[in-house]
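> example.struct
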């Protein structure tokens, strides 16, 4: 993109590393910061540099953390017998905010996808197997996404749990609350129908 300024062109190109940000959006962001909010741009650059430098992964659950062990793992009031496995820190935050779950987490930082170079090693499954082998965890909750890769990952998680003598469960998938059957896609409806539960 020709801007007349190599530095501006570099800024626009750098902004494109963000998901969903194409050339036009990156250009709009760069122009906004330079035209209207240079102090906000300085604050953003400082915080971004600090975050990239100081935020790593929790040694216990692999979520983002500034400390070796994150606040959730260090919280002694949480139930250590329940371990929820999620694909990303975003998924972990969603469960934390939307449910009353009081157990612990393990963040895979991806899902099984050999084409993308994501195998058991990259997902930290050796560390997970070791954790399951400690004997504290009684139930593993596979909270992977309902995609082909997510289902394959959940299947592998169930195998790991069985090998450690740990009960494995899967998040329910199906008709969303407030949804109408005529508007639900066929795959979701078939999954919901197959996973129906008895009414008491």
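> example.seq
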């Amino acid at each position: 993109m020709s801007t007349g300024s190599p530095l501006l062109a570099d800024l626009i190109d750098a902004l494109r590393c963000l998901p969903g940000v194409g050339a036009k959006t990156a250009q709009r962001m760069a122009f906004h910061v330079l035209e209207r909010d240079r102090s906000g741009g300085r604050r953003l650059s400082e915080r971004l540099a600090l975050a990239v430098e100081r935020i790593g992964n929790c040694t216990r659950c692999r979520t983002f953390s500034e400390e070796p062990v994150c606040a959730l793992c260090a919280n002694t009031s949480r139930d250590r017998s329940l371990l929820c496995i999620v694909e990303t820190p975003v998924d972990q935050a969603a469960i934390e905010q939307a449910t009353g779950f009081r157990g612990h987490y393990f963040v895979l930082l991806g899902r099984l996808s050999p084409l993308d170079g994501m195998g058991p090693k990259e997902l930290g499954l050796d560390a997970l197997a070791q954790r399951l082998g400690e004997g504290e965890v009684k139930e593993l909750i596979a909270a992977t996404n309902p995609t082909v890769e997510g289902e394959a990952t959940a299947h592998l998680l169930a195998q790991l749990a069985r090998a450690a003598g740990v009960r494995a469960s899967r998040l329910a998938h199906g008709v969303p609350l407030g949804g109408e059957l005529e508007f639900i896609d066929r795959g979701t409806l078939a999954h919901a129908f197959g996973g129906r539960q008895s009414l008491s």
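> remarks
The radius of gyration is 21 Å.
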